[in-house]
Specification:
68 residues; mainly beta; two-stranded antiparallel sheet; 4 strands; globular
């Protein structure tokens, strides 16, 4: 079994939505394992290099494409 792990310190929060049409239904709650939130990556859809970092477009297991 392969486990993909991400350093959450390297993740950035999403920006507040600016337009009415951008709002979507809330995401399902995460799994709680050992009193910590856990999300499963189903697929890394894209990646790109931005200066000194690599950014990933991640599809989360159990979530819609809108939550990528």
């Amino acid at each position: 079994m392969i486990h993909n792990m991400f350093n959450e310190d390297l993740l950035t929060c999403c920006k507040e939505l600016q337009f009415q049409g951008q709002h979507m239904n809330p995401a399902p709650p995460p799994m709680i394992i050992n009193k910590e939130e856990e999300y499963k990556v189903e697929e890394v859809r894209k990646h790109r290099k931005q200066e000194w970092e690599t950014q990933f477009l991640v599809h989360w297991k159990g979530y819609s494409d809108k939550h990528d």
